[in-house]
């Protein structure tokens, strides 16, 4: 048994390691860009709502419509639907570079919605107290809204990260690389079940680790 496991990792170790690195690259790059887009978008979505500091019904409705439209499209369909756009932006539709655009388009609106949900949990009375003292909106955003909801924001980003990992696995269908591509090409198409099992095991460990880490950080921020 031990010899069999040793032979497996001797044969597949480099491929699995490369696929894992590619998955980290896709998740890391797409998550960073999605946060840069999604968090401000979530703040704008929250503050443009009825009765909020930057109330703008037209803008709020447009943002809601766009976010809901994108979120209603399953990632695998979105992936194929925007192939021409991806080709235009990245110059390719395969590999890590070719999947960043669809990953960001899929994840950023999700983060924005999670951000909105977190910010809406902040006690309205606290916000009104700061507004009554004449504190500027930009300071309220950072020192009140984000600070008071940071624990919830971390949990939201944890959920988004796990969803992004699942999306990178589906991206393997278009040759994006990563663990999904490895499992599809070898585990599924070539009926090599051992590759599939190891890939699933790695994904489970990865997701469990991220969820545990996110929970710990969220709990720590909640106590502070």
Description of the structure:
The protein has helices spanning 2-47, 57-71, 75-81, 83-90, 97-119, 124-132, 137-171, 178-188, 193-223. The protein is mainly alpha-helical. It has a single domain (24-223), classed as MetI-like (MetI-like fold), CATH 1.10.3720. Helix 8 (178-188) packs antiparallel against helix 9 (193-223). The protein is elongated. The model has no long low-confidence stretch (mean pLDDT 84).
Q: Based on helices, strands and strand pairing, what is the structural class?
A: mainly alpha
Principal-axes geometry comes out as elongated
Global Rg: 21 Å
Number of helices: 9
Q: For this entry, what is the oligomeric state of its chains?
A: single chain
Number of strands: 0
Main β sheet profile: none
Tell me the strand percentage band: under 5%
CATH-defined topology: MetI-like fold
Helix content: over 70%
The count of domains is: 1
Q: What is the string of SSEs from the N terminus onward? A: HHHHHHHHH
Average pLDDT level: 84
CA(first)-CA(last) distance? 49 Å
* Poorly predicted spans: none
CATH class: Mainly Alpha
CATH architectural group: Orthogonal Bundle
């Amino acid at each position: 048994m031990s010899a069999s496991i040793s032979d497996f990792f001797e044969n597949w170790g480099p491929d699995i390691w490369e696929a894992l690195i590619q998955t980290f690259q896709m998740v890391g790059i797409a998550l960073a860009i999605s946060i840069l887009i999604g968090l401000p978008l979530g703040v704008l979505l929250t503050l443009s709502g009825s009765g909020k500091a930057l109330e703008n019904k037209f803008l709020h409705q447009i943002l809601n419509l766009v976010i809901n439209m994108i979120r209603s499209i399953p990632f695998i369909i979105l992936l194929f639907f925007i192939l021409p756009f991806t080709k235009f932006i990245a110059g390719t539709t395969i590999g890590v570079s070719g999947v960043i655009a669809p990953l960001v388009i899929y994840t950023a609106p999700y983060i924005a919605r999670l951000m909105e949900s977190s910010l809406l949990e902040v006690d309205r009375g606290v916000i009104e107290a700061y507004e009554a003292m004449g504190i500027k909106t930009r300071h309220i955003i950072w020192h009140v809204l984000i600070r008071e909801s940071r624990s919830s924001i971390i949990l939201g980003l944890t959920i988004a990260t796990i969803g992004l990992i699942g999306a990178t696995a589906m991206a393997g269908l278009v040759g994006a690389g990563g663990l999904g591509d490895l499992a599809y090409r070898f585990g599924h198409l070539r009926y090599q079940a051992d590759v599939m099992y190891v890939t699933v095991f790695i994904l489970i460990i990865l997701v469990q680790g991220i969820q545990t880490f996110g929970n710990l950080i969220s709990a720590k921020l909640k106590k502070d």
